[in-house]
Amino acid sequence: MATEQRTGAGERSDEELSMLLDDQMCFALYAASRAVTALYRPMLDEVGLTYPQYLVLLVLWERGEDAATGVKDIGAALQLDYGTLSPLLKRLEARGLIRRERRADDERAVRIALTPEGAALRERARAFPGEIGAAMGLDDEEFDRTRASLRRLVDNVTAYTRERR
């Protein structure tokens, strides 16, 4: 039952929407996120990372070992603000996995680059997506469809939020 919808043509009225926990999309998303993040925890513990630190490294690994990426670009990719991202980057730098570099043409701008240790960690993490995918128990088509639906949901909610400002 689609309970968390804006009322419009052909949609349910507020009186018809369920207030049962199991009918709430927000709870299904929350529970799924917690379950998947919990799957990552033991694997990430083995390499000494938190889940948000792993996400930062995924962005950097995707951009390439020799590429330096702007803090703003990392924040945009992860949908994180500077205040949330900055402590993550400091901890990764303290671990020797990244280095922060000021741009010569604009010293206010900081670029993030992988260290050799940060680049090497990619090989240790290479098995993570397969293990997580296997635990999810979705075939390739279900996996792709679910990911596409979640991306569409994020886009829709983001657009809706912008409209309301």
TrEMBL record:
Main localisation: cytoplasm
GO MF terms, alphabetically ordered: DNA binding; DNA-binding transcription factor activity
Compartmental location: Cytoplasm
Alphabetically ordered keywords of this record: Cytoplasm, DNA-binding, Transcription, Transcription regulation
SMART domains (UniProt xref): HTH_MARR
Superkingdom of origin: Bacteria
One BP annotation, GO: response to stress
Keyword Transport belongs to the record: no
Matching InterPro entries: HTH_MarR-typ, MarR/SlyA-like, Transc_reg_Sar_Rot_HTH, WH-like_DNA-bd_sf, WH_DNA-bd_sf
Domain HTH marR-type: 22-155
Any one of the GO CC terms: cytoplasm
Keyword tRNA processing: no
PANTHER family (alphabetical): ORGANIC HYDROPEROXIDE RESISTANCE TRANSCRIPTIONAL REGULATOR, TRANSCRIPTIONAL REGULATOR, MARR FAMILY
Protein name in the entry: DNA-binding MarR family transcriptional regulator
